[in-house]
Design the sequence.
């Protein structure tokens, strides 16, 4: 059985302790809680203690990493695009850009 992992690197517009950034982390917790309810999310790995690579540290903003493992590409897609519109405006304010790396 194949799983899907998604590794994302975002860049916050404000320092980690800024109220807007703290709100992002609160929303992120809620998003992952909802993802767990789908039955499609296998694991969310903590970014704490993960070294920031040279590639990730380049650029403006404050890096935020996520790594999740999903049962299927379809499950990831359905969750991502179902929830996207609810949070899109807020994430556009918070993030400078996204880099996505996926593999199956």
Sequence:
């Amino acid at each position: 059985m194949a799983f899907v992992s998604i590794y994302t690197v975002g860049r916050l517009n404000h320092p980690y302790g800024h109220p807007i950034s703290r709100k992002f982390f609160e929303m992120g917790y809620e998003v992952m809680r909802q993802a767990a309810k789908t039955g499609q999310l296998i694991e969310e790995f903590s970014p704490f203690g993960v070294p920031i690579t040279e590639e990730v540290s380049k650029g403006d903003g404050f890096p935020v990493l996520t790594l999740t493992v999903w049962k299927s590409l379809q499950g990831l897609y359905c969750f991502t695009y179902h929830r996207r519109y609810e949070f899109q405006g807020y994430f556009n304010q918070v993030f400078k850009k996204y880099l996505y790396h996926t593999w199956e």
